[in-house]
Specification:
With 455 residues, the protein is α+β, with helices and mostly antiparallel strands. Helix content is 31%, strand content 15%. The protein is built from 16 helices and 18 strands. It is globular and about 90 Å long. Pfam families: DUF6371 (PF19898), DUF6965 (PF22292), Zn_ribbon_16 (PF21957).
């Protein structure tokens, strides 16, 4: 008579995260009486040669313990044992690579690529063609589907953002589907995103990602700008080509291991709205872990964003794309604003927007005078009362502290006297100009802090 086991390996193709190797190749045990899976440690990893993790509920007393519980005579003395690992994987296995020929094969059918179609509509083919070649953007035939939505299959037009390292090796590619009209990612009825190595069903693929755009670092000494998404990196590279724009993918990827390739460079981080503090903390951490590398964080969006834009979690690309690219690129040929270094008594410097960004991570650009509306109507200067005389009178009438003053989580004034001389000179020289509103805001914030401390 054949015995029927209560606990069996879950039938079907569904896989879970292996508790040992961390790969999504794990089959859980299922209780056929309750139809519930057992605790996450019970199961078998399909990577038998490279991992071999296996824990049977009958082998360590789990099944017996459940039976005792159901009979009411469980003594609570049972202690589980760990699963067996037949072949412990290497702690730092070599990454797998995708043949570069796959990249070349994907660099076609751009008329069917939704993301490229949107870029072309916005900027024109002559502008877009070089950046497509530079970042080696590909077109995928992949059609998205999901077991959760039977019968659904996406339209074609997906984009591949290849992750190519500094040696030209292809680590993987992120495949995403965009709306060709809005340029937004397709997230309904589910998030349309997958990976090239998964779509290609490459066996035993050892994924070790690099940042999108890493291949551009080779033989290039430019400063580096880090953003979260690939789309943002591409758009920002059009407006500010003085930087090498890389996409990290997510905050979790902003770590010392992946940033080692940036050692010795000047790196500016451009976080999306509402995550400035998280990125700022990461920048400080990375500066300690990678000596000789300068990590600074731009507060551009935090300074200028409206409440509506904050709710939309706007990124730097959403900000830049408001401006006419042709006029924006003409900035170095136009008179540049007068900038005063926060802690410097030297004469005012004449800096372009990019130079200023590199120096202080606070973007003050004359491009604020232009807006890409349908008629490209120049923005009006802010119609507000700057009250400079009142501020100057206040600061001249108090005893200035010799200690540092913290304005907010992102700004600390080391030398108040130098800060005031520079900021007051800047706002007087640029009164009413929107690009210099952060200087006025910092002066007003300092006044509030000093007034509060005196009380």
């Amino acid at each position: 008579m054949t015995s029927i086991h209560r606990y069996i390996l879950q039938p079907g193709s569904k896989k879970h995260w292996c508790p040992d190797c961390g790969r999504k190749t794990f089959v859980l045990y299922l209780d056929i009486i309750t139809s519930e899976p057992l605790p996450a440690q019970y199961g078998r990893c399909d990577r038998e040669e490279k991992c071999g993790y296996y824990l049977n509920p009958y082998s360590n007393g789990y099944a017996k313990m459940i039976s005792q519980q159901e009979r009411g005579d469980f003594t609570n003395l049972w202690q589980p044992i760990k699963g067996i690992n037949k072949c412990k994987p290497a702690t730092n296995p070599a990454p797998s690579y995708i043949p570069y020929q796959m990249v070349k094969q994907s660099q076609t059918r751009y008329h069917q690529n939704n993301f490229v179609k949107w870029l072309t509509d916005v900027f024109g083919s002559e502008i877009i063609k070089p950046v497509i070649e530079q970042y080696q953007i590909g077109t995928s035939k992949y059609l998205f589907s999901s077991k959760d939505f039977p019968g659904y299959k996406s339209d074609p037009g997906a984009t591949i953002f290849w992750q190519i390292d500094v040696h030209g090796k292809v680590r993987t590619g992120k495949i995403m589907l965009y709306d060709p009209t809005s340029g937004r990612r397709m997230k309904e009825p589910f998030n349309h995103i997958t990976w090239a190595h998964k779509a290609m069903k490459l066996p035993e693929f050892e994924l070790k990602q690099c940042y999108f755009g890493t291949h551009l670092l080779k033989d290039n000494i430019k400063s580096v700008a880090l953003v979260e998404s690939e789309k943002t990196a591409i758009i920002a590279s059009l407006y500010l080509p003085e930087f090498i724009w890389l996409a990290v993918g997510s905050l979790s990827n902003l770590n010392a291991d992946k940033c080692q390739i940036l050692a010795g460079r000047k790196v500016c981080l451009f976080p999306d709205l509402n995550v400035f503090n998280n990125w700022d903390s990461k920048a400080k951490e990375l500066s300690k872990l990678i000596p000789g590398t300068q990590f600074i964080v731009s507060d551009l969006l935090e300074v200028y964003a409206s409440e509506v834009e904050r709710q939309q979690s706007m990124d730097i690309a959403d900000y830049l794309i408001k401006y006419d690219l042709g006029k924006f690129r003409d900035l170095p040929n136009e008179p540049t604003p007068t900038i005063i270094n926060l802690e410097d008594q030297s004469p005012p410097e004449q800096l372009s927007s990019v130079e200023y960004l590199e120096k202080n991570a606070n973007y003050a650009s004359t491009q604020e005078n232009y807006c890409t509306s349908s008629n490209k109507i120049p923005l009006k200067e802010l119609d507000i009362d700057w009250n400079i005389i009142e501020l100057e009178s206040y600061f001249s009438g108090i005893q200035l502290t010799n200690q540092s003053v913290k304005l907010n989580q992102a700004t600390t004034i080391v030398n108040v006297s130098l800060f005031l001389s520079g900021h007051l000179a800047t706002v007087k020289a640029n009164e009413g100009k929107r690009a210099f509103l952060p200087y006025l805001n910092r002066l007003q914030s300092l006044k509030q802090v000093l007034t509060s401390n005196r009380e």
